[in-house]
Amino acid sequence: MAGTVSSTKTPPWSLCTEPAVFHDKRTGRHLCRDHFISDVESRVAETIRGRRLIVPGDHVVIALSGGKDSTALLMILARLLPALEGVTLSAFTIDEGIHGYREDTIRSADELVKKYRLTHTMISFPDLFGGTLDVFLEGREPEACSICGILRRKALNVGAERAGATKLATGHNLDDEAQSVFMNVLRGDLPRLLRDSGSDSQGRFIPRIKPLMFISEKEIAVYLMLHGAWADLPECPYAVHALRGEVRRMLAVLESKHPGTMLHLMESRAQIEAHCDGSLVAEPMRHCAECGDPCSGEICQLCNLKKTL
Ligand code: SF4
Ligand code: ZN
């Protein structure tokens, strides 16, 4: 991890004399509560500004799972909102139907939107696909995340469209992004590696933005704790089957031993992107022969999957 919670009072790299709450191992800085919060928020603001993720007049809908990342995303965007000219914020939550997991996060999402007085809509797998993820995965647990990913992608697009949004914001953080870079390298999937660097819509869907892409999981946890918004929510029971889980553990060890590893993975992706001419990611725009959704083949992944559910 890039940083650790620290109780050191006046270490050499403190920005002030207030007690430090966070030690950033990568830069050596020790940050007090106020400096830590403003550092996180200003880095998110810089990501939004530098990458033009949000522009005046945008309606940004947050894909709010109620988990740590999307909760922090909502809190930070709500805080930055006055500086974002004419921008509207709303949220929607997807209920995949995962017993023993989603109930708590949905309750948490509901409390949050009430507190911030945001428009909030719910989308459920039974409504969209005629059944819960639990039912679809019976006997197919090892495929959980690929099946869920295809269904969630559709649900995200439907949620953003129903909200009338111009941007769809997700809570992907630095750890998620670094894991994705590593996983795509492990799979030998360079086009996917490049597509993941920003919006994967290629003009086909409502653009997705990841304002927390340079904020680590650890920083998000500390940010929530400092705001009294930390909740020990359950993990998705299917996560144990994912390659991501193994990559996550491996990168956490590497980051702890070699602070900056995750940022270096992001930099590698940026360098590859800078040296590619775009032909690797450009796919011909087609429409699914069955549902009409934009896709790259004859039949979209969702229609293919539906035949097997
Ligand atoms: Fe879906 Fe996998 Fe995430 Fe669970 S861990 S919500 S199955 S993508
Ligand atoms: Zn289709």
Q: Would you list the SSEs in sequence order as H and E?
A: EEEHEHEHEHHHEHHEHHHEEH
**Chain-averaged pLDDT:** 89
Measured distance between first and last alpha carbons = 39 Å
- Total number of domains: 2
Compute the gyration radius: what is it? 20 Å
CATH architecture of the largest domain: 3-Layer(aba) Sandwich
Largest sheet: 5 strands, parallel
Number of strands: 10
Q: So, the CATH homologous superfamily of the largest domain? A: HUPs
Ligands and ions found: iron/sulfur cluster, zinc ion
Strand order of the largest sheet: 6-5-4-7-8
General shape:
globular
The proportion of residues forming helix, as a percent range, comes to 40-55%
CATH class of the largest domain equals Alpha Beta
Strand content: 5-15%
Category by helix and strand content:
alpha/beta
Number of helices, counting only DSSP H or I runs of 4 residues or more: 12
